[in-house]
C-alpha cells in the first residue's frame, strides 16, 4: 500500500497502522485511512486514467487501501453510467442535471463498491468468513461479492428487508439471519456474533476500509465529468457511511490535484427518519429517531457513522433536505418516466431531495447537480408497484381493449407518419 | 447505412430495401438484414475496436443497421461482464466456462440490446410511439429505453408476467395492457392494436432489426475472448429471436474475418415448453406446445421466430437440450453460490443446459463453453425465494441465535486467523 500512511481516529486523533482487520479506535471513534497525497500527485494523474483500460472501480488503485499484490475480486464493480438528464432537468426547472445510476452494479447497488473492498481486505487478513448487519444492500452486495470469491458469509438483516434483497442473500448461499427487530437490534446482534466467532467484520461504520470503496463513486463521477466539478452532488443518507465516502473521494481528488473546486453535498433523508439532517438543521447534537419511512435502506434511527457524515455535510457547506415518503414515490415515477431509470425508494431519495431543494430555494436553478441513484428498483418491487400502480387487466380481444382504454380515457392517436411500403 | 445491402426473406428469398419500419415479407416469412462483408472487412478490424472508447453495444456500428446520422439512445446498453467461472466449471467437471452476465444491462436483461436498436429505428421512421408484446423482458427494456428517449409505449404482457417486470413497465410510464391469456393471445392482441393505430412495431419476430441488436451479445463475447472462439455458446430459447441473433453475430464476425472458427450453439428449452428443441430432436416440423414452465421468459408455446432459430441451431451443428423446472431452480442456486450471479429462471436456463449436456454426454468435459445469463433474478424474486428458501427468523438476542443455529445444524467455526491487535 504505497500511498497509505495509516489510519487515524476522527474523534481523538490516535493513529494506527493500516492492518487489514482494523476496526474502531479504543476511544470508540471511527478511523479514517490517511494517504500520502504528495506522492499520489507525483505518480498519478488524469492522463494515467485516460490510458487505463480497467473499466471498474479498480482503475483508482492509487487511491485505494489495498496491497499491491492483492488481485481485485471477481465481480465487475463500478464504472456505472452517468447520464445527462436533460428531460428531467427540464421538468425540475434546473439548468444541468446528471444521474449516476449505481443500481447497475453486479448486485444492483452502490454497496458493491464497499463489499468488493471488504472481500480484498478479508483475504489480506486471511479470513474465510465475513459477516455484516445491514438494512439489505450492504448484505446482498457482500453475499454476492464474497460468493464469487469463495468466502462464506453470515448476514444479519432486519425482518422488514424487502424480498428482493432477501432473495439475493439466499441465492448467493449466505447464512441469513432475519432479525425480528429494528436495524439497531440487528446491528447489536451481529456485533455480538462477530465478537463470539471472530468473523471478518464488514459493518461499514466499524471497518474503516469500506468508505474507501464507496468513495469510488465520486472518483468516477468526476472523471466522467472530465474533472469539472459540479456545483452539487445529491444522495440519500442513512447510516452516514456513503455520504462520508463520497466526500472522501472528492477530497482525495482535490488533495491530489485532479480537481480545483469541491462540490457541495446535498444530504437527503426521509422526514420520518432524519437524525443527521436534524442535527445539521438545528445545530444540536444528533438524537436517535424512529425508523418511519418506506425507504428501507435509509431507515436508520441510530446512524452508525454520524461523525464522518456530519463532518462531510458541514465541511462541504452542504444542504440538508428531508423528503416525505410521497415525495420519494413521486421521484421513482419521475426518474422512470423521464430517464428510464428505476431506483429503489432510497435510491431515488437523492433526486427527490434535488426537487425539494429547488422548491425551497435552497439551491439555485442555475446549478449543475449530480444525483446518485444508489440502488435498483427491482430490489423493492412492492414499492415500485405502490408508486406506479397496477396495470390494466384485459381479456384477449379488441373490444375488451377498446373498452379498457375508454374507461381510462386513453385515446391512442393513429400514427400520421409516412407509410413506407415494403417494395 | 454504408454496409447494409438490404433485407431478404428467409423463406422465399424476396429482397427489400432497408427502410426503418420493415416488418415481414408478403409471403409471411421473416426478413434478415444483409451486409456487405467485403466492405466491412476492408474498413474495420479488431484493431479499430481496440482503439474504440465506446464501451457499449454501439462500438459495433459497422455491423449495425442504423443510419450514420442516428445517435444512440440514452441508456448505456451492452458491454456486460464476461466472467471466467472456474469455481462453477470445477463443480460441473468442465474444463473452461465463462458466464456472460447480461442481467447487468440498464433494465436488467439482454433485451435492452434489441430495444435500443428499436428506439433508433423508430426515430428514423419518424414515430413517436412504439408498441410490443412480450413475456416481460422485451417489454420492460422497450419501456425503459423508449422513456429515456422521450417516446411513448404501449406494451402487451401476459397476466402471468412476474411482478418485477410489471413494476418496471409502470415506473417507466408505459401504457401497460396485462392480457388475461397466453403469450400467443397477447401477441395476437398486440398485432391487432398495432394494425389499428399504426404504432412502430417492436415485436422481435416481425421487425428484422431487433435480432441485429441482440447479436451484439456474441460480438462482445468474442471480443472479450480476444477473438478466440469457444467450442460452445449456451443460451435459453423461447421465441427463437435471441438465439437467431446470437448466431447472426457469430456469422458476421466470421464473414468479416474477425474469427476463423464458429462456435456451436447449445439451445436450451424447458421440458414443459420445448417446441423448437423437439423439432431438432425429432427431425419433424415444429408443433405448438403448452406453456408449462416457471421460466416465464421462455414459456413460448408458439415461437414467433422458428425458421431463423432452427436454422441457427442446425447450421451451427448445435446441441438441443431440455431441462426441468427443478434443474432451472438448481442452476439459480449454483450460479449464485459459486459465482455471485443471480439470474432469473430463463436467465440461468442456459447454464442448467450446460450441466445437463455434460451429464448426458452431449458435450465433452474438455470443452470451452460460454453460458449467457439473459436476465437478472431480481425480476422474478418469487422464484428466487422458491429456489433458495426463506431465511431463518430470529429474535434479537444471542440465545435465540444459538438456538436457531443449533436447530439447523449450523456450527460456525471460531476464527483461527492471527489476531492483529490495534496497537
Automatic annotation (TrEMBL), chains A, B:
* Root EC class: lyase
One GO MF term, please?
threonine synthase activity
The superkingdom listed in its UniProt entry is Bacteria
Give the EC number: 4.2.3.1
Protein keywords = Amino-acid biosynthesis, Lyase, Pyridoxal phosphate, Threonine biosynthesis
Q: Which residues form the Tryptophan synthase beta chain-like PALP domain?
A: 77-375
Q: In which pathway does it act?
A: Amino-acid biosynthesis; L-threonine biosynthesis; L-threonine from L-aspartate: step 5/5
Q: Which residues form the signal peptide?
A: none
The reactions it catalyses are: O-phospho-L-homoserine + H2O = L-threonine + phosphate
Q: Which cofactor does it need?
A: pyridoxal 5'-phosphate
Function of this protein? Catalyzes the gamma-elimination of phosphate from L-phosphohomoserine and the beta-addition of water to produce L-threonine.
Q: Which family does it belong to?
A: Belongs to the threonine synthase family.
Q: What is this protein called?
A: Threonine synthase
Organism for this UniProt entry? Flavonifractor hominis
